[in-house]
């Protein structure tokens, strides 16, 4: 979840894009959340876009059975096929990358003024990240969303503090380094799956001939079965999982909690480096002036043109390749068995960065030109309440799709899911600015800040802000 800035040495420029440096003060520094006038509008807008975009990627996981894409990945005449393809090309991975960018920026903004308070900044920062981890655990195990990002972002946040003063070039180098490490790691991981699958097939063939299986063949059957239950469900597993998701709260928990635990333990070392690298890149882009809107217009235009010009052909090719070679579970396993190294997967990190930079440049150009002012103001409000709005996604989707709610799990066509996405977007685009008209923070933002500062923060806009002691 995005770490919203609580203090920054910048004020919003009249255009709402580029911040200007605050005048130095000789007064003793105080520790308090950021004032509304000190927010950077562009960062809130980008955060709002990323938050709403993430719902496009999350809602199928809330609502669809395992292996659901097999029903339409080989049918170009299907509406589902084209909706899936369009969302994959334009948004898959890009919204999470943008969200990670602004999280990294949020860390810099939070620490900027508080660096003057030395130890208190460290205490506040790590308390803030600690509470984010706690919120992630509640989100995953009580609200039952195994796609939670709060826990992982909180863990990454514990490391980000160490990089706050690193030069931008070195921060940005984390992306290609992690991409290379990730490629090697995923290759070894897929080779391990292929090894288990081939051993499983060999054991099945031996079993069908009626011979007594060896100990290694018996173990191969058990290993593959465990992998199926956790990562690669077959048709029977998919039907069983669907039945669990359409059951009671305890039934859904039986399905969701083991997955949450798996992602927060076994697979966490494989997932965090990519997220951390994106956060570091966000910090670098802010220090370079890209994410603060400080670049000249022509550089944003050039970034947008290069990003779309190179990124779109690359992502279109990779999506086409996947649809041709791995449209189903069985096809993906067969491909993995015969391709020890999938070189085409190197396209993903390249096209993702190109397109997220292009998307960001397009948004910045729109804001700079003063276009869609009503929409951008609403997006800024959504971004300012990103924590609350993110949890709202979970509450709406779980109550709509899970069995203990309206029980629409596995009941809708893929394209129909995005009608609900549109409704949620509209509600949040109208509700967020309305809420912020009367209150300083979103409900969860208020709670997070109060826990961070260990003091109840004023909620209503007309409430006086208590003076905190200087440190």
UniProtKB/TrEMBL annotation:
Pfam family, one: DUF418
Domain DUF418: 285-455
Residue ranges of the TM segments: 40-61, 81-112, 124-142, 170-189, 267-290, 302-323, 343-367, 379-402, 414-436
Domain of life: Bacteria
Region of interest (Disordered), ranges: 1-24
Record keywords, A-Z: Membrane, Transmembrane, Transmembrane helix
Biased composition annotated in UniProt, kind: Low complexity: 13-24
Name of this chain's protein: DUF418 domain-containing protein
Organism: Nibrella viscosa
